[in-house]
Design goal:
By secondary structure, the protein is an alpha/beta fold. It contains 26 helices and 23 strands. The strands form three sheets. It has an eight-stranded mixed β-sheet. The longest helix has 27 residues. InterPro entries: GAF, GAF-like_dom_sf, PEP-util_enz_mobile_dom, PEP-utilizing_PTS_enzyme, PEP_util_C, PEP_util_CS, Phosphohistidine_dom_sf, PTS_EI-like.
Length: 763
């Protein structure tokens, strides 16, 4: 019996050298068949809809059966394994009642049967099967070995299942590709996929192919000419001031750019189907390797020069790729690893119809921005390689966290109908802008907006916000190339306070760390969410906090509607120190002749210790705001950005219900006004629970205010109270959601899709 670890090492090494999904599966079944000395080894994978299993690879069964054999869940022995998630080991499979004979497999001669489920992070990927001629079950050692191998290969096969590439090799496979990820922002959009490039080094370029070699060759030629022009103008402009050896280096670069090895090598690879970037990387690597193998130290050093040249050409290719917008009014779906605020700002907002990111989570800043702008977004899509689909038509379904590449016309038409319905519905909600968010039995809920993501803070006013519940002051810090001055901050804060006056504006002090990094102040930590972030960072950099407080107080002196909100409080001495700094800053400004008053000072309850210490914190604060995103993360010990556990993040968890109830009761007892901000305030089911609990101030993205206002105005709180009592007895979030869902269904509001009711039906 082979050792499992040794076998896996060999398999992983072979798979790492294999790019084609069919070849990967063929390698697995061939190698395992040989190692186990069995006649048959097969892999069945779930369809994208997870309603059937398809024979994806086999060693021993008929090759013509691959892609043509389909079993429903619980059909046959393979379907039984998928349905029960348990292994089956039989001496004579054909005699078993569950056995289904499929003639095209030619499997009648085989009797012994061993099948195990393929799983990845609790999700069924498929089934792995071995079969043989003998009429006795496989040994315990064989079964244990196959289970071990299957558990380790589950991740690899999951990637193939997620990206759907294996389907393209099967007969009559679907013409389009379907990918799933994590919900970033709700809604539906469709358009042309536009690739957002990060700052990409030549070493990081991945294999990618093109269907338009003529365009790729044109891009490469233009980039080559641009770099040559840069060098010629640089050497001409600076030539008289440069030493001879540096002038010679310019000449060397020019010779390298004009070398036939470079241009012909890249063009040859593009003609073979490679993109300009991938062709450039391969050619530069080959040329640099030739220099490195030289025995002459001077020639060896030229390898660095050729890589430098390659990087310059790559930068030009990527720049051109971003600048060329073929149709100025075409709707776009932006795709990339993680799309930044700067990326969004470089496109007209009316053209952006969706975002798809291969990393990130529901609570990444990209998702928060998308929510604020009402742009559908999907985060953490595994298997999607956007560079392979540049220019393709794509549908983004943020409600289901799904995207479809090259969808058929019928599907596009149906999604277009949904998009039109949503737009009509949102236009109809304009009538609610100046109406209160009040339940039908009289509970009044203030709806505030979260802002600070964009220079324009007015969308909240346009949507009927009653103030700002959370102004994220870190955004001006994140888009600068250095810490903004007090004067720069003052101008920004004054503009926001003026726009909303006399409505209150809660400005959060600088909250960086975790997934919010400053480009000019890098923080590297092994566990950033438990590290140097929020108030911990600003107290350790007191001059930054004082500068920010002074800027806020100066703006408050003009408009009088500021409330200061302090993030990540976990200790009494933290909020005590902040209040002292505010008082000192106010005194200093008064001495300078400014008529300053101290605004209300509040804290965010995000860390469980703040919840438990609330009576001791109360003397130093005037109000509290529950940060539902971080509080959920810390209560459940779930890293919301970790795809392995992000599915466990749910703010309807019973622990959150207990925490929210306790915080509300304590705040009322202590006479502290309380609000709640975060994505929880945009979740219709969560809003039902919050209204039942008695939360009467919510802060959410401007785009979602009209929908939540309509929901609240459609409710009777009295109908929710019995459900709240039952929710207290629930043991998981699924049960709690199931309790409140019928209320939304009664209102014709889809709980699963987080969509509004049909715009054509009365609310």
């Amino acid at each position: 019996m082979p050792h499992p670890l040794a076998t896996l090492t060999v398999l992983v090494e072979q798979i790492a050298r294999t790019q084609d999904p069919t070849a990967i599966m063929e390698t697995i079944v061939q190698r395992l068949g040989e190692l186990l000395d069995v006649e048959v080894c097969s892999i069945y994978l779930c369809t994208p809809e997870r309603d059937a299993l398809i024979l994806a690879a086999t060693r021993g069964l008929s090759s013509s059966a691959v892609g043509n054999v389909r079993l429903a869940m619980n059909e046959g022995l393979v379907g039984h394994i998928a349905a029960t998630l348990s292994a089956v080991n039989l001496a004579d499979a054909p005699s078993d009642d569950r056995f289904v004979y499929i003639p095209e497999t030619h499997e009648m001669p085989y009797h012994c049967f061993l099948g195990v489920p393929l799983l990845h992070l609790r999700k069924l990927v498929g089934v792995m099967v071995i079969q043989g001629h003998q009429r006795e079950p496989f040994s315990d050692e064989d079964e244990a070995f196959l289970i071990t191998v299957a558990s380790q290969l589950g991740s690899t096969l999951y990637q193939l299942h997620r990206d759907g590439k294996w389907m393209s090799k099967l007969p009559d496979s679907s013409p389009y590709r379907h990918y799933t990820g994590i919900k970033g922002a709700p809604g539906v959009g469709q358009g042309r996929l536009w690739l957002i490039h990060p700052h990409l080094s030549l070493a990081d370029v991945k294999e990618s192919m093109t269907s338009n070699p003529a365009q790729q060759k044109s891009d490469f030629s233009d980039a080559l000419a641009a770099v040559l022009e840069e060098l010629e103008s640089g050497s001409g402009r600076l030539g008289q001031h440069l030493p001879a050896d540096v002038r010679a280096l310019f000449h060397v670069y020019e010779l390298m750019l004009q070398s036939p090895e470079l241009s012909q090598g890249v063009i040859r690879l593009i003609d073979g189907g490679a993109t300009a970037e991938w062709a450039l990387k391969q050619t530069i690597d080959e040329m640099a390797s030739a220099f490195e193998q030289s025995s002459d130290p001077y020639m060896q050093a030229r390898s660095e020069d050729i890589r430098n040249i390659g990087q310059r050409i790559l930068n030009q290719i990527l720049e051109r790729d971003q600048q060329v917008l073929e149709a100025p009014d075409e709707e776009l779906i932006l795709a990339g690893e993680l799309i930044s605020i700067a990326d969004l700002a470089s496109f007209p907002q009316e053209r952006i119809r969706g975002l798809v990111c291969t990393s990130g989570s529901t609570l990444s800043h990209t998702a928060i921005v998308a929510n604020a702008l009402g742009i559908p977004a999907i985060m953490g899509i595994e298997g999607l390689e956007p560079e392979l689909h540049r220019g393709a038509r794509i549908i983004v379904d943020g409600n289901r966290a799904e995207c479809i590449v090259n969808p058929p016309q019928a599907l596009m038409k149906e999604y277009k109908r949904m998009i039109d319905q949503e737009q009509r519905f949102m236009r109809d909600l304009d009538r609610l802008r100046d109406m209160p968010a009040q339940t039908q039995d009289g509970m009044r809920v203030k709806l505030m907006t979260n802002t600070g993501l964009l220079a324009d803070a007015t969308p909240g006013l346009q949507r009927g916000a009653e103030g700002v519940g959370l102004y994220r002051s870190e955004i001006p810090f994140m888009v600068h190339d250095s810490f903004p001055t007090e004067q720069e901050q003052y101008r920004i804060y004054s503009k926001v306070l003026k726009a909303y006056a006399p409505r209150p504006v809660s400005m959060r002090t600088l909250d960086i760390g975790g997934d919010k990094q400053l480009p000019y102040f890098e923080i590297n930590e092994s566990n950033p969410y438990l590290g140097w972030r929020g108030i911990r960072f600003t107290l350790d950099n007191t001059q930054l906090l004082v500068s920010q407080i002074r800027a806020m107080l100066r703006a408050h002196a003009e408009h009088g509607n500021l409330k200061i909100l302090v993030p990540m409080i976990s200790r009494v001495d933290e909020i005590k120190t902040v209040r002292e700094l505010v008082e000192k800053a106010a005194d200093a400004l008064k001495r300078d002749g400014l008529d300053v008053t101290i605004p209300e000072i509040g804290m965010m309850i995000e860390v469980p210790s703040a919840m438990l210490l609330l009576p001791k914190l109360a003397p130093y604060i005037d109000f509290v705001s529950v940060g539902s995103n971080d509080l959920t993360q810390y209560l459940l010990a779930v890293d919301r950005n970790n795809p392995r556990v992000s599915n466990l993040f749910d703010n309807m968890h019973p622990a959150m219900l207990v925490a929210l109830e306790q915080i509300l009761e304590q705040s009322r007892h202590l006479g502290l006004p309380i609000s709640l901000c975060g994505e929880m305030a945009s979740d219709p089911v969560a809003v039902l629970m919050l209204v039942a609990l008695g939360y009467d101030c919510l802060s959410l993205s401007a785009y979602n205010i009209p929908k939540i206002k309509l929901l609240i105005r459609s409710l009777n709180r009295s109908d929710l109270l019995p459900l709240l009592e039952q929710a207290r007895q629930c043991s998981d979030e699924t049960q709690i959601r199931a309790l409140f869902s019928p209320i939304l269904e009664k209102l014709d509001w889809s709980t699963d899709l987080r969509q509004p009711p049909d715009a054509n039906k009365p609310a």
